[in-house]
Amino acid sequence: MSTNERRKKEIKEMKQEIIEAAVQLFLSDGYENVSMRKIAKKIQYSPTAIYNYFASKEEILKQLLMNGYSIFLNSLKEGVAKSEEDALSRLKASLNAYIHFGLSHPDYYRLIFIENLHLLQKIIIDEDDRTKGFQLLTELVAEAMNEGVLKKNEVQLVSQSLWASLHGITALLITFPDFGWSDFDGLIRFQVEAMIKGVS
Amino acid sequence: MSTNERRKKEIKEMKQEIIEAAVQLFLSDGYENVSMRKIAKKIQYSPTAIYNYFASKEEILKQLLMNGYSIFLNSLKEGVAKSEEDALSRLKASLNAYIHFGLSHPDYYRLIFIENLHLLQKIIIDEDDRTKGFQLLTELVAEAMNEGVLKKNEVQLVSQSLWASLHGITALLITFPDFGWSDFDGLIRFQVEAMIKGVS
DNA sequence: TTAATTTAATTTACGCTGTTAATTGTACAC
DNA sequence: GTGTACAATTAACAGCGTAAATTAAATTAA
Prior knowledge:
Helices cover 71% and strands 0% of the residues of chain A.
């Protein structure tokens, strides 16, 4: 039946319309201030119409998390791709890319890594985007150890420590912008150097 | 007038009763799930009675933050006091005490340092408790630099970098307990060592 | 001691939230 | 054309933070 297929397309389009409205509202108003009714109003539907496409508000949130995480992964990969080819440069590039993503997409960072980290496990990025962020980091760490630019150690342990420091600087700069940070860029550079030195 | 003074005492007691109920509920149900109505029910008052003592729910939150921050400061000071007397030991003790506070009071840590960090500036701890947490850290860093166990550098920059890494490990362990952390205690030890080495 | 005044507590109410249930309208199959 | 499936709407529920009006109790003044 062609009507069936067209219907499927319509469902997909409607879902798309909903999450586009949701993203826009959440970027401007902040996530917690966006209600189902506001989303519905933006797309000119009644509030409960949305429930034909998403079971709950949390399901929309999950979709937003997927989108944000996809952008996050691309940022990391781009950062690494643009770097020099040696293992240390690639590792540093990934660290800088992580922080840079947070600072240029604070709402997404907050949503993914601060407020809903526990939901991340359940979210599978589509298809070939399987290389998750942390796996990328562990690969770069292992690479650096193999090339001898990083002291050999448990790869998981070192990667987790690096992630922790990355998250710390990013989360603090985002959630506490009015703290008297010495010098934004200087602090970031110092932190990245300290992280590398710390595990070297 | 003695009636006036007695009244002041009653107000203080009522406030105390309210925040005690609020703390209990928030510790068991999680902060966002505690409503004014639930607090009121617990202390056997009507919901709006609370508004004679706290202007809003946020004012109760601020009180909780103050309590939590007070516990936090005491934990830090205790940790330092119990350590060896040399500057490096004292600094390490403060780092460990920070993480330990987060792990033993995850709800308070989440409330203060993850969800409401921006409110922290406005909160002044009572009386002689003026030594704020970050100031304590900077003092220990300066001390360590003066004793020559830490490379001389901008004290603010180093302290902020250390705080960032502390926050990172603490926040991640709290908000993502189900992530496959190599070895909780081992990771913490490694992180503290890496932090010190990074700024040495 | 009684009357007037202050003030603490309650009830009522408003506008919001996420979500369920019942209802309406419309496009399709037979 | 009639019956059925289903998308969208309206109505409704239980909850939220909080403002306003009202009641009740305590304190002060006469």
